[in-house]
Design goal:
By secondary structure, this protein is α/β, with parallel strands linked by helices. It is built from 17 helices and seven strands. The structure holds flavin mononucleotide (FMN).
Length: 328
């Protein structure tokens, strides 16, 4: 998720049981031009694997070049974005627009699959317009062109994030292709994951917004339902996330970037609402950490344990540029 799936998020996802994590989407044009911010997306830590890095663009040759860079950076899977509904992306002929241009979409997948040894996967929406079934025609063509798996978020691009994901389409797609299909959209609990898997025959589920500020949901999906995490644990995970993000992108950027995460972590009845607002107003992440420790004193012990279990930081990686995408 653009503006969300930073390294700290991905590493946390792996730690809580995700079998595979994915980067934010990376512009192939940005990689082609050596844009320093874009190159920052190619920072991969040892404990993220297996990791997919997602690229977007509309030119097969540029996408192939980007795929090679992504593979060289250490990605285990090269994922192609045919789902982004955001205008900034679709107006360039990339993202969900390609569902309306199946020939070009197939040429992109073919060029990327030829360029790398890593498996190539594709993420798509159902189509551009509400009620569209484009994914059912485009999907098999992409498999023919070399896609080793398909992820379907069965909302239209027009829908953005409104309405619900129609997983009857996921079930139809599963019938039409002989590669693993990953079901994505509104999977927010173990029960929902089980229902979607059972009703679609999908090989796996992908969890997006449900894991924002709530890595515990991943653990319940893998290990079984569990009580809500204690305040101390929530505060400790958030502090670890804050520290890692500051290390990743520097204090100035991280301080702004992290604000949305405070609501995600502290909501769900875990902390009183004014507390979140208080954190958002604090200027530095050190002040945020101090407030969290004051509100949940037991967090210090949990945090110490978590930090002890963290793998050592790869200093070489820290020298690479960093960036954050606007979100979308
Ligand atoms: C803030 C945000 C950023 C996203 N960025 C991407 C992206 O870069 N690439 C992508 O394939 N999907 C992106 N998505 C879509 C999600 O991957 C997912 O398909 C969608 O949110 C539905 O799943 P969910 O209901 O589990 O969130 C994004 C979603 C959100 C909310």
């Amino acid at each position: 998720m653009a503006g969300v799936s930073v390294q700290a998020f991905r590493r946390q996802g792996r730690r809580f049981g995700a079998g595979l994590v994915c980067s934010e989407m990376v512009s192939c044009a940005g990689l082609h031009h050596g844009n320093e911010r874009t190159l920052g997306y190619l920072r991969i830590a040892a404990d993220e694997h297996p990791l997919a890095v997602q690229i977007f663009g509309s030119e097969p040759a540029l996408m192939a070049e980007a795929a090679r860079m992504v593979e060289d950076a250490g990605a285990d899977i090269v994922d192609i974005n045919f789902g982004c509904p955001v205008r900034k992306v679709t107006k360039t002929g990339a993202g969900a627009t390609l569902l309306d241009e199946p020939d070009r979409a197939a040429r992109i997948v073919s060029a990327v699959a030829d360029a790398v040894d890593a498996p190539v996967s594709v993420k798509m929406r159902r189509g551009l317009e509400d009620g569209s079934r484009a994914c059912l025609d485009v999907g098999p063509r992409l498999v023919e062109a070399g896609a080793a798996s398909l992820t379907l978020h069965p909302r239209s691009a027009r829908q953005m994030y409104t309405g619900t994901a129609d997983h009857t389409l996921t079930a139809e797609l599963v019938e039409r292709v002989d590669v693993p299909v990953i079901a994505c959209g509104d999977v927010t609990s173990r029960a929902r994951a089980q229902a979607v898997l059972a009703s679609t025959g999908a090989a796996a589920v992908m969890v997006g917004r449900g894991a924002q500020g709530n890595p515990w949901v991943l653990r319940t999906m893998v290990e079984g339902d569990a009580p809500e995490p204690a305040r101390e644990e929530v505060a400790a995970e958030l502090i670890l996330f804050v520290r890692e993000t500051v290390r990743e992108m520097g204090e100035r950027r991280a301080a702004g970037f992290l604000k949305k995460f405070y609501g995600w972590y502290l909501g769900r009845g875990r902390f009183p609402r004014p507390f979140k607002q208080e954190l958002v107003l604090l200027e530095s992440t050190d002040a945020v950490i101090e407030r969290l420790l004051a509100a949940a004193p037991g967090a210090a012990g949990v945090l110490a344990r978590l930090e002890e279990e963290q793998p050592p930081v790869d200093d070489r990686l820290l020298e690479l540029p960093v960036s954050i995408y606007g979100g979308g």
